[in-house]
Amino acid sequence: KTFLNEVDCFACMNGIVITSKGVEETAAKEVKGLIGADCKIQEGCVIFDFKDCKDLCLLCYKSQSADRVLYLIGSFGFDDFFDEFGKFIGKLDFGEWIKKYEKIKIECIRLGTHDFRSVDVEAKAAEFILKKAKGKVIANKDYEIIFFIYIIGNKCYFGVDFAGFELNKRNYKIFTHSNSLRGTIAYALIRESGFGKKELMLDPFSRDGVIAIEAAQFASGFPVNYYKKEKFAFLKLNLGIDYEKFFNRIDKQVKKQKAKISCFDHLFKYVDYSRKNAKIAGVDKFIDFSRTELEWLDIKFRKESVDRIITSLPASKNADLGKIYDEFFYQSSYILKRKGAVALISRLPDFAKKYAERHNFAVAKEKDVWSGEQLLNILIFKKKNI
Fold first, then answer.
1. 138 — phi, psi (to 5°)?
2. Given Cys at both, which of 143, 158, 219, 354 links 105, Cβ 3.0 to 4.6 Å?
3. CA-CA distance, 29 to 100, in Å (whole number)?
4. pTM higher than the cut 0.90
5. What does each of the 386 residues of the chain score in pLDDT, given as a tens digit?
């Protein structure tokens, strides 16, 4: 397969999923699972071939790793951005995208250090595009199509935004914790853990329930954007799709049986937060909620009965972190299956490793992920062979 590099359009159809840095491998795995497409991993995104625009619509509806989903028209590298951008737009073949629609919206997001702003890019893009496509107008509210510009480092991607909003923002996050995880990051942690859809999973520090909710959506197949059907930008595009049948077909695939996901916290307030958020997300029936002290886990679960323990450990300096981490790994060593895994999002990776070692856990995998500009660590622990 040939992936789109320089100006090239409609020789084959290419899509791009924009995601957080560090989540690219997870996004590639998800794209492969949802639409059967192999991906080329780039910094902050994955690029893939597809055969039908329904594939992009499906990714918008179900992807838990995506920030944006675009039909990729072209891309280019640059030293002098605006000089290269002008040449790029001048040579670009918009195909049918520019002919069908009169009202155009232009958006840009930019990651990295540059001597220009995203609003400068949007203004210049409007100038270039309107010059090339006479008779078109810029309409930020009553738009018909969104041309999206993604700049990361010295690379620029240009395409049609199929979602029309930030897919990483979860509508269920109403009751939030101060250290709440972004949904896409929680999903990446779940997939990195190796969690299988029929496995028994525990989050003993639920806070606002994001990890359990993302796991339930993955295990059940419940679309993460089920309650945003009417907001998608692709509904305005003339794609020849019967959207009612499209959504109904996907919704019928949701598994009915209860997933084996336990969402615990030692404070009732956070159990309540988690339950309410899960209900808003539409997956509360797939999760077991309980106010449970960390010290009671070996009472709640039989020895070596849990497949995955997936959580974000406390990092507050006001807590007795040594006691908490020691008890967590002690309990995990008892309830976790011998071939199971403990998966953590950690702000204190060395601290977690120290207490994991005390209870005969070894690091199986470690990687960095970024939630916006914040660096976080994913740590996967497995029991040592003794």
1. -90, 125
2. 143
3. 34
4. yes
5. 333 333 333 446 999 999 999 999 999 999 999 999 999 999 999 999 999 999 999 999 999 999 999 999 999 999 999 999 999 998 887 777 888 889 999 999 999 999 999 999 999 999 998 888 877 898 888 999 999 999 999 999 999 999 999 999 999 999 999 889 999 999 999 999 999 999 999 999 999 999 999 999 999 999 999 999 999 999 999 999 999 999 999 999 998 877 799 999 999 999 999 999 999 999 999 999 999 999 999 999 999 999 999 999 998 877 799 999 999 999 999 999 999 999 999 889 999 999 999 999 999 999 999 998 899 999 999 999 85
